[in-house]
Amino acid sequence: MRPLTEEETKVVLGKLSKYIGDNVKLLVDRPDGSYVFRLHKNRVFYVKEQIMRWATNVARKQMLSLGTCIGKFTHGGKFHLVITALDILAPHAKHKVWLKANSEQQFLYGHNVLKGGLGRITENTPTYQGVLVYSMNDTPLGFGVAAKSTQDCRHIDPGTTVVFNQADIGQYLRSEDQLS
Amino acid sequence: MEAEEESMDVEAILSAHQSKFKSTEVNKEVELQFDLGRLLATDLNEIEAQSLKTKQKDGYLLNLMRDNTQLLINEIWKFPVENNDGGISVQLPSPKTVLPREKPIPKEKEPTKWEQFAQTKGIAKKKRSKMVFDEKSQEWKPRWGYKRINDPKEDWLIEVPDNADPYEDPFEKKSEDRKERIAKNEYQRLRNIARADKSGRVKAPLPPAYAAKLNKHQVTHALGMARKSTASIGKFTPKLSKEPAAKSAGKKSKFRPVVGKKGEERALNLEILKKMSKKTDILDVKKATSKFISDEHEKAHAEKQQGIRKKKNKHVSHKAGKKPVKLMKQKARRKKR
């Protein structure tokens, strides 16, 4: 476990800001306590400072996880968000997509969202914007990238991909062993 | 009278001179062990631990050293002294004490593919004589080299078998085959070297021919490495005049402490965020155009709606701002209106 370097912090915050924009500031500067980012075995954890201090008593080899894992650094130095970051992203989301009840399952199986399954979408969502995916009753289901802007969504046919699936809560079952 | 006085003087001077030096005879409880080949004397007598603690420690050690050196030199004088024109010398015996070697034992050479095969098959290497008896010329000839046996240059005639290609030059084919065999052998030799190199057993130093081919970058790199390759990591390596400052060879990763001061990290992260937000202020053309197009659509839509409303003489305020749009229900709503 170690703090992120400046470059790593830039990458992580940059990636988070793709989904929640300026609200990243709210993650860094929280009124309800001090939270920090920590790197452990290539994974980035978002953890309360006090818990992190306690965790220093655990040997590096023995420690599996602390706080919330928000993503991992690939070997090439890229940062990938993982589904466990959903709880952190969801309250601060800027661009949202709501799915119709019948296409929820498709999304939870890891498929992209098609225009036909799209219930609602935040206005002025540009192309390739990071979006949070919700069910119609506002349960966060995952996140992805908008394949089409809101404007384009009005005119395309129902079979077109609208949101690329990046992570969904189905992964808790599908790839249980790869999480954490 | 005078002569007597002088002789007295000489004796006095001699005794005075002698009193300055200690006796060559040294008595020890346990005799020293000598290895004169290495000029080594080992003193097994017990050290006076008490005197090592006092202030006369240095004096005691010096005395001990002198005595032992005296004994060593006494021992050397026991050997027959040769008088050479340069001075006197003594032939020392061969050393008995075995010293550890300075360098590590050279690693065993990686066996070649053939050596491996021969070992598994139990083929032993046989010594072959250099000279071979040539039946044709009834002469002894070398197995290889100048005037060797079966020299292809001496073949002026080659029998062509029935199945051979009639348009082929057998002489050329023979030399071609030979070249091929040589090439194959060279290839196998290189492959053996490569295999040995991979296993890490053979690490040839940089050959001078290769060193001559280094470019400027490589030379500066090699120089930097050489400067650093001392016990003190190049701290005391003298510098040449006008030598360029060495570029640091590697980047050392340095991380902040795992637990810093409270709130320090938040400030750092906010600083980074501030820097990042400056960058993102640059106009995003794609976003701007899509926003523009979206606004245009909105406007047109509003105008259209207003036109309809004017006709119907109804007044409904248009919803504006960033609010979710129900795409699927939009058409239905329009129809209702």
TrEMBL record, chain A:
Residues 95-170 form the PUA domain. Its main location: nucleus. InterPro entries: NIP7_N, Nip7_N_euk, PUA, PUA-like_sf, PUA_sf, Ribosomal_synth_fac_NIP7, UPF0113_PUA. GO terms for cellular component: nucleolus. CDD domains: Nip7_N_euk, PUA_Nip7-like. Keywords: Nucleus, Ribosome biogenesis, RNA-binding. It is found in: Nucleus, Nucleolus. PROSITE patterns: PUA. Interacts with pre-ribosome complex. Belongs to the NIP7 family. PANTHER family: CYCLIN-DEPENDENT KINASES REGULATORY SUBUNIT/60S RIBOSOME SUBUNIT BIOGENESIS PROTEIN NIP7. Required for proper 34S pre-rRNA processing and 60S ribosome subunit assembly. This is 60S ribosome subunit biogenesis protein NIP7 homolog. It comes from Amphimedon queenslandica.
TrEMBL record, chain B:
Residues 88-111, 234-260, 292-337 are annotated as: Disordered. It comes from the Eukaryota. Belongs to the RRS1 family. Pfam families: RRS1 (PF04939). GO terms for biological process: endonucleolytic cleavage in ITS1 to separate SSU-rRNA from 5.8S rRNA and LSU-rRNA from tricistronic rRNA transcript (SSU-rRNA, 5.8S rRNA, LSU-rRNA); ribosomal large subunit biogenesis. The keyword Transmembrane does not apply. It is found in: Nucleus. Residues 99-111, 292-306 have a biased composition (Basic and acidic residues). Residues 307-337 have a biased composition (Basic residues). InterPro entries: Ribosom_reg (IPR007023). This is Ribosome biogenesis regulatory protein. Involved in ribosomal large subunit assembly. One of its GO terms (cellular component) is preribosome, large subunit precursor. Keywords: Nucleus, Ribosome biogenesis.
